Amino acid sequence: MVLGVTGGIAAYKAAELCRSLVKAGARVRVVMTDAAKRFIGPLTMQTLSGAPVADDLFAAEETSGGGGARIGHIQLGDEAHVIVVAPATADTIARLAMGRADDLLGAVVLASRAPVLLAPAMNVNMWGNPLTQQNLGKLVALGRFRTVGPDAGDLACGWVGEGRLIDPAEILAATVRLVTAQDLAGRKIVVTAGPTFEPIDDVRFIGNRSSGKMGFSLAAAAARRGADVTLIAGPVALDTPAGGGITRQDVETAEQMRAALMLAAPEADAVVMAAAVADFRPANRTVGKLSRRPRAEVAGGEGSSTPPLRELALTANPDLLAEVGRSRAARRPFLVGFAAEIGADAEARLARAREKLVEKACDAIVLNDVGAAGLGFGSDDNAVTLLFAGGESESLSRAPKSELADALWDRLGPKLRDVARPVERPGRSRRATVIRPVIALGARGRGRRA
User: Fold this and answer.
1) Active-site residue, selected from the candidate residues 35, 94, 152, 157
2) Is 108:73 a contact under the CB 8 Å cutoff?
3) What are phi and psi of 103, to 5 degrees?
4) CA distances in angstroms from 90 to 222, 284, 387, 416, listed in the order given
5) Taking CA 416 as the corner, what is the angle to CA 410 and CA 421, rounded to the nearest 5 degrees?
6) Which residues in the chain are classed under CATH 3.40.50.1950?
7) CATH, domain range 188-282+311-418
8) 154-158, 246-250, 343-347: which has the highest mean pLDDT?
9) Is 362 a known active-site residue?
10) What fold is seen in the domain 2-180+435-449?
11) Could you give the CA distance from residue 363 to residue 411 in angstroms, rounded to a whole number?
């Protein structure tokens, strides 16, 4: 990929973006404008990318195998799978809109057929200026150009408002999405993730060791592939995946998760129940804090005492997976359950997962051994077996949960072709994602001095 760095104060953030792109597996070639080099040194970008920085329109690129040299901007344009311009200044956007090719970056963009992602960064008034919006709108209308950001907040110039370069993590996620097949585009997917906490009193709860990492990875992968994702998350220490396309709802108890799920599931094409919902909750919640010792209390002038906790009565939580399975109609939503098994041998675990597949009326179930070392709850890796209601099954070997999530969608995605699409309600529109067209002019374009 080509990373174009232009002349704005936000150019220093291009170093972090470059490092993240390389870490994600991209082969990055950095193109810097003369103005960009006034803000950040080419040596920094060369060190982070592992390749010489391109900054000369008239330089030739050496070809592999000693076959001579090719015109530099033509070779960079030919080889690019995606071009990211971050920061994209008002001047750069204007030059690209006019088709200027009098510097290397402009020539590379013109010589390439790759998609271009622009990350605007400028003063709030420059961003809101009708000329800037007209130039950006012209580019977006071509279909080849996308934008990510800008963010709003304190700007380096002292103003407050839109124009700040969006976080490099968001640019990375938008870049990945831009080059990812959109095989789930238009699909509405609900993912549950994490544990539920069932309160005993105002201090203690019943819970489990689920970290939510598998569910969050599945939500992130679905959003990258174009889905509109509702992520219903139990109490976890995870940030919402970057890149847009995800609406997150935080819950704590099984009853709260049930309420959110029953509201979202009827409109979904698929529901993935990756959450580890507590099977039981305390029959009675105590207000305050239970003590192991009797506690003297005074009520109405007479002494009394509260006995210490010796027993904890439990009651069953609703079976959320079974409820969705019973309530769905016309093969919608496609229902995926998770079976976290432990202790039994492999055949016994498979047998239990097959029973659950039928009992809960699932279309597919993901079996994982949460007792295996380094797998399951809290770990970054997992190994699962995917079973379908039709009888087919496949084991997916140990891999990071982020990679395993894509592998699961590779297999689950084609199954959604037979799922009836929900009827759009009047007045509802697909939630906006981070990759978005030019903003409408109006109050958002105005700012103020800090």
Assistant:
1) 157
2) yes
3) -135, 170
4) 33, 61, 52, 42
5) 145
6) 2-180+435-449
7) 3.40.50.10300
8) 246-250
9) no
10) Rossmann fold (3.40.50)
11) 12
